[in-house]
Amino acid sequence: MSLRLTQIVLLLQFALAGFSIADEPSVFPYGSVPREKPDMPLSAAMSRVYEGTYTGLDCVHNELFSRFKYTPLKGFDYHNHDGTVSRRDATKIIRVNGKYYVWYTKRDTPTPPDYDGGANDTIPSRDWDLSEIWYATSEDGFTWQEQGVAIKRMKKPLAGWRSVSTPDILFWKGKYYLYYQAYLFMPGSRESSGTNGDDCPVSASVADSPDGPWTPSNKIVVDNGPPGSWDQYVIHDPYALVRNGKIHLYYKGEMGGEPLPVRAQGLAIADHPFGPFTKHPLNPVINSGHETSLFPFQTGVAALVSRHGLEHNTIQYSPDGVNFEIAAITGLMPIAPGAYVPDAFTDTQNGRGITWGLCHFRNLKRDEGKSHSMLARFDCDLSLDVHDIEMKETDIFNDPEINFKFGLSEEQRKRIEASARNPQP
Ligand code: AAL
Fold first, then answer.
1. Whether residue 226 has pLDDT greater than 90
2. 150 and 82, same structural domain?
3. Quick check: 3 pLDDT over 60?
4. Nearest CA residue ID for atom 4, ligand 1
5. Which residue pairs from 269-273 have beta carbons closer than 8 angstroms and sit at least 24 positions apart in sequence?
6. What start and end residues bound the annotated signal peptide (predicted)?
7. Nearest partner of 294 among 320, 274, 272, 331, judged by Cα
8. For ligand 1, what atom is nearest to the CA of residue 200?
9. DSSP secondary structure string, 221-280?
10. Is there a single domain that holds both residue 391 and residue 282?
11. Which of the residues 103, 296, 306, 313 has the least number of beta carbons within 10 Å of its own beta carbon?
């Protein structure tokens, strides 16, 4: 382009810009941050604030942004944390007759898990091996009374004879249903050739009251996918919501991956709690995460996505419960969260969100050979009815010891020091 032509183009651009100043902003405004997309050219970063599923630029006005705060629970005994008692993988919490109810995996074994192949009929292979589903109630969500066992291990050879773990609760047409992982093999083992180590399908039990007694369906209600499908080995973390008059059961699957497994979440839908469940043709519907945790939100469904994958540490929203988008990015998320979800089973089109639940801390004292997990409480503001500014603060101050705990491995340190001594040109 000749100099002249360039000058004419520039002049034209200035003229156009000058023209737009009169009618619309040409710089991004200071002050109250626009809630709607300003009518001006935006960078990719600013465009996605307004065009994606974010509800605006500031976290304060994003109903699906929250930080998480943690409180130890009162009322559970862990045998002085010697590794013989573990509680983990809490269900969503429900409130019945003025009391909160939660179910969880409880392991009470003579020894802590033996991760090195020494497991047998009484020594667990993993924290969730040789486990049962227990339950507890609470009036305030901080102090809990353990009530006893809800689901015992099944009789061999039924699914769940080795262990029953990782439950979730459903209330449907006047009855309560517990879904759980029903192990036929020792978790972590490859007893049956071609298994993946933590294989299990999902089974379920029913009761007229949250206090039981529970009658097992004695059948697999959500089975592993056929060979070659992403969920062929693992159907973990069943999680039930009622939507459009049906039971929507989300679950985690593991789809191979080398050297680390890739995890994703699927959806299976049924008219009856014991199935048959039809897996959604678009599965997996969430591309990341580990333990499932979802709740009705406005007309759709929101999900806490933590621990693994491209989109870990996000809170996602889907208008149809199938097509999820990132609504917020957060940190220090609860592990295996089971939230209090008052409208989980009301088939609502006006989901109100969540503010608290139980989660677990895992691998406690594993270095001392006493590995176990402990339940704890988390609080957040993912509710349309609460406006807690303290939960909208993104900056987290960590004790340096926490970060140093995640320091370099010896191998990394050697590699990095060697390359510092002999840097590549
Ligand atoms: C959990 C869950 C499932 C896995 C194991 C126990 O937190 O994802 O339940 O099998 O870890």
1. yes
2. yes
3. no
4. 236
5. 270/221, 270/246, 271/246, 271/247, 272/247, 273/170, 273/172, 273/175, 273/177, 273/204, 273/206, 273/221, 273/240, 273/247
6. 1-22
7. 320
8. 10
9. EEPPPPTTSTTSSB-EEEEEEEETTEEEEEEEEE---SSS--EEEEEEEESSTT---EE-
10. yes
11. 313
pLDDT digits (tens, 9 = 90+) for 119-129: 999 999 999 99
**Residue whose structure tokens are 């001006």:** 40
- Structural domain count, the chain: 2
Distance between Cα 318 and ligand 1 center (Å): 24
Residue 238 contacts residue 224 (beta carbons within 8 Å): no
Q: Closest ligand 1 atom to the C-alpha of 362? A: 7
This prediction's pTM: 0.92
- We report the CATH number of the domain holding residue 376 as 2.115.10.20
Atom of ligand 1 nearest to the CA of 336: 7
242, 290: one domain: yes
Give the number of other CB atoms < 10 A from CB of residue 183.
Answer: 27
Same structural domain for residues 27 and 85?
A: no
The span from the CA of 263 to the CA of 124, in Å, is 24
237 CB-near residues (< 8 Å, 6+ apart): 89, 166, 168, 181, 250, 251, 252, 290, 291, 292, 336
Q: Which two tokens stand for residue 322?
A: 């199938």
Judged by phi (left if over 0) then psi (alpha if -120 to 50, else beta), residue 7 lies in: alpha
- In tens, the pLDDT along 301-319 reads 999 999 999 999 999 999 9
How many residues make up the chain in this entry? 425
Residues 279 and 131 in one domain: yes
Q: In a mutational test of the pocket of ligand 1, which residue from 186, 203, 235, 236 has the highest number of ligand atoms less than 8 Å from its CB?
A: 236
Task: Give the mean model confidence (pLDDT) for residues 110-123.
Answer: 95
- pLDDT at residue 43, rounded to an integer: 94
With a 6 Å cutoff on the Cβ, whether 236 touches ligand 1 is yes
What integer pLDDT is reported at residue 193 of this predicted model? 63
285: nearest Cα among 332, 258, 253, 238: 253
- How many C-beta neighbours within 10 Å does residue 165 have? 30
318 and 326 in contact (C-beta within 8 Å)? no
